[in-house]
Automatic annotation (TrEMBL), chain A:
Transmembrane segments: none annotated. Gene3D superfamilies: alpha/beta hydrolase. This is Maspardin. The keyword Cytoplasm applies. It comes from the Eukaryota.
UniProtKB/TrEMBL annotation, chain B:
GO terms for cellular component: late endosome membrane; lysosome; phagocytic vesicle. The keyword Lipoprotein applies. Keywords: GTP-binding, Lipoprotein, Nucleotide-binding, Prenylation. This is Rab7. It is found in: Late endosome membrane. PANTHER family: RAB FAMILY, RAS-RELATED PROTEIN RAB-7A. GO terms for biological process: endosome to lysosome transport; phagosome-lysosome fusion.
Amino acid sequence: MRRLNNLSESSDYLTFRSSVPLRNICVDNSDGKSWKVYDAGPKSVRCPLIFVPPACGTAEVYFRQILHLSACGYRVIAVEAPRSYWNVNDWCIGFQLLLDHLRLDKVHLFGASLGKFWMLPAIFLKRLIMPSLVTKSYDPDIIEAVDFVAEKVVLPFQVNTINRLELASRLTLNCASSRVHPERIRGLQFVTIMDVFDEYALCSPVREEIYDAFPNGKLAQMKTGGNFVYLSKYEEVNVHIKIHLRKFESGSYSAILVPYDTS
Amino acid sequence: MATKKKGLLKVIILGDTGVGKTSLMNQFVNRKFSGQYKATIGADFLTKEIMVDDRVVTMQIWDTAGQERFQSLGVAFYRGADCCVLVFDVTLPNTFKSLDSWRDEFLVQACPRDPENFPFVVLGNKIDLGNAAVPSKRAERWCQSKNNIPYFETSAKDATNVEQAFQAIAKNALAQESEQDLYNEFPDQIKLTGDSNRFNNNDAGCSC
Ligand SMILES: Nc1nc2c(ncn2[C@@H]2O[C@H](COP(=O)(O)OP(=O)(O)O)[C@@H](O)[C@H]2O)c(=O)[nH]1
Ligand SMILES: [Mg+2]
């Protein structure tokens, strides 16, 4: 098939692969429980930005944030949970252990499709990953992003039975609807919600629910982007991340080593 | 099309420091004015939903501090802008003289598809001070010479013309957006003929 641009052959991706090592970190003693971690940027930053992939993604989907934001002086970490976390509670405990291991106690979190964690019933299990990989868009940026996710995420799952377990675990997590309580996070002060105006997997009620969950949240809307806006429109996403983080720049929650020129 | 797309309009405000860019945005979005000067740090934005001709559109208004600061955000800051608002202080002629370079700066960075017809709106602010050093005639002449840019004399302090100006900004931005929709919807119609290979249509989304 004639291809557009293959993101996995792009210079961005190749630079990422050759400059940011993938670490496997075991946080508890049992088998198969290692986190995959990319940690880029100055290690002296004690309050980094941590990217948590959506159910249908791997830590790699954030390569454009890892690469470009670390180049600006931010410490950027992307994590991927081990397979065999079957519920949100396990995930949270594991994540806490990981933070301990990395000696971090306060972090900035970036999650994609977080709403799915508490909104979608199991019946949507299949529709959850599949439609996001079919795009009606003619925007080359969006097509490239979808192709990249399909290649990096779905193809390996289809050929590799061990990975199926991992996928099953993620989808179970994804569907454990009652475990995350929106009212517990409602009070969060500094939240930026990124959203795209074109069609994507989240239906409107879910979207409204997320807006409601963060009444103090800042809405960063983008015209287009599809399901993987951090890949397709990464420059815009990175601008919104920088704006979000700027509030913290001068304090102990700074995610950047040298604040960029403030003249 | 049966369903109207929800619209998002990206508006960028440019002009010298102190002319009242942040105040105008705050007056429009929050209906508040503060006489105290607080320097804007970097670029930031506010959103407001408004009605334009029975249509709900979300306006995302980008405010900036000095030139150097928002350049650190890169060209992504300008990308996809639907309208650019140029602001000067009617009591300070130098801020008016800067409009040319702000306009050029925008066109170079945003690189719009059709620079000649890209929608700008000019606001002469602080009209409440009453000692305008830039006469309306002079500002209007400049606007006419730049392909008839709409001109408003505003006060962020007492809200004079602020609502009107932003309505005009939205209308102009929408007019330009509907032209772009023509480009974007064209491939959809090709699809109806049965050719579903998306990769054949990639010329349709070419950027500047
Ligand atoms: N009298 C008067 N003062 C204004 C007006 N707009 C802004 N100011 C004042 O001018 C100063 C600079 O305003 P600001 O919005 O911060 O300008 P910016 O640097 O362009 O964002 C502040 O002290 C404002 O209170 C106006 O319409 N009338
Ligand atoms: Mg300002």
